[in-house]
């Protein structure tokens, strides 16, 4: 375990790239909570605004991934970071504006696809299966660590600083993340893929990978509403950020443990087990009521149980998708995750806002995970001999 991680951490460009992904995740973690807790805005309004950003990001990531197959990722992420930062500054300059959703959509669609860029480089940088698995785990940890930090920073800023400062900080973080990844990557133009689309043999398993990832993220996104609703009912709204951070912290711990040692079972068995446990974890959220400590513990457990899902699905991509399509394919997976999270946030916001309560939102989250489990009964990868 330590030997693999030590080799990975000795690769300076990879480490810088991991840091850039973590920073971009900080921004992604800040945006929803900043909007939901924004003074003068209702929970439902903030959730819909967060959904607008997430859905726009879901459009932009695969487009950037496709461009990376033909243009150096260094230029793609640099331009995206500059444009997205500019839109976030405009959001900060126009609080309460009717154009806010349009500006957030602009920031979302141009948000730099740093995770996709780094993910595409891993098979080229590391040839051994153990190193690749460890790299996927570290990428997941970096992303989850950033998501853990984002809500905490957003919660502190909402409680102690003017509303506009939240989005100025987000703009600065996006710019810094894009610059870091650009520095870590070379300027070599990639070899364009021979075809223009994914081979038919891999289309069905790839669709299952995308669907499973999206459904899991629907459940994750619902927590952005469930957690603030519970802590506000307990009169401790300022704890929403730290409790949400428990999810990402649990995911980071789970990813490190899962990636540290090969599990002697098939990907399908690993996926089914993780999804079954995760569904049970979300179902238990209905007992949290207004008990914040219990809620934080349950959120941490849910994060730890769900973390193997992303690693297993990422590893399956190497089998299903030819190397030239990895960036765009991973971009679609990220789209499903971000878009699913946005849908989960919006649906949970509408359920809680209309009086359905936290229990109903948690039940919908558990249902989404259960559907993902049904999809995972089929193989998520085509056989190697069909390549």
How would you characterize this protein structure?
The chain is mostly helical and 387 residues long. It is 78% helix and 0% strand. It is built from 14 helices and no strands. It has helices at 2-9, 12-36, 43-68, 73-93, 100-110, 114-125, 129-160, 163-184, 203-233, 240-260, 267-283, 292-320, 326-353, 357-375. Helix 6 (114-125) packs antiparallel against helix 13 and helix 11 runs antiparallel to helix 14. The chain is globular, with a radius of gyration of 20 Å. It starts with a helix and ends in a 12-residue tail after the last helix.
Quick structural summary:
With 387 residues, the protein is mainly α. 78% of the residues lie in helices and 0% in strands.
């Amino acid at each position: 375990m330590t030997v693999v991680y030590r080799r990975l951490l000795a690769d300076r460009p990879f480490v810088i790239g991991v840091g850039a992904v973590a920073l971009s995740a900080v921004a992604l973690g800040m945006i929803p909570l900043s909007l939901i807790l924004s003074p003068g805005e209702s929970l439902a309004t903030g959730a819909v605004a967060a959904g607008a950003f997430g859905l726009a990001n879901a459009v932009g990531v695969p487009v950037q991934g496709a461009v990376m197959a033909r243009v150096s990722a260094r230029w793609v992420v640099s331009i995206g970071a500059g444009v997205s930062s500019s839109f976030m500054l405009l959001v900060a300059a126009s609080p309460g504006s009717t154009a806010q959703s349009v500006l957030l959509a602009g920031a979302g669609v141009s948000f730099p696809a740093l995770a996709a860029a780094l993910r595409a480089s891993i098979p080229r940088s590391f040839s051994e299966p153990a190193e690749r698995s460890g790299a996927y785990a570290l990428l997941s940890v970096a992303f989850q660590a950033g998501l853990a930090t984002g809500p905490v920073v957003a919660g502190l800023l909402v409680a102690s600083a003017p509303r506009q400062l939240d989005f100025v900080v987000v703009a600065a973080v996006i710019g810094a993340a894009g610059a870091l990844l650009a520095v870590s990557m070379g300027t070599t133009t990639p070899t364009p893929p021979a075809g223009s689309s994914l081979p038919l043999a891999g289309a069905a398993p790839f669709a299952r990978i995308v669907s499973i990832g999206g459904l899991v993220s629907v459940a994750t996104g619902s927590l952005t509403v469930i957690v603030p609703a519970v802590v506000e009912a307990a009169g401790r709204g300022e704890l929403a950020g730290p409790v949400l951070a428990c999810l990402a912290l649990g995911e980071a711990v789970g990813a490190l443990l899962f990636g540290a040692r090969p599990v002697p079972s098939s990907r399908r068995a690993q996926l089914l087990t993780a999804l079954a446990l995760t569904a049970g974890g979300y179902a238990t959220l209905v007992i949290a009521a207004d008990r914040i400590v219990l809620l934080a513990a349950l959120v941490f457990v849910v994060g730890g149980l769900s973390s193997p899902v992303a690693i297993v699905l990422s590893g399956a991509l190497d089998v299903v998708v030819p190397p030239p399509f990895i960036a765009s394919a991973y971009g679609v997976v990220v789209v499903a995750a971000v878009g699913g999270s946005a849908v989960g946030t919006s649906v949970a916001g509408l359920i809680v806002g209309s009086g359905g309560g936290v229990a109903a939102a948690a039940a919908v989250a558990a249902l989404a995970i259960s559907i993902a489990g049904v999809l995972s009964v089929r193989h998520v990868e085509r056989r190697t001999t069909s390549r």
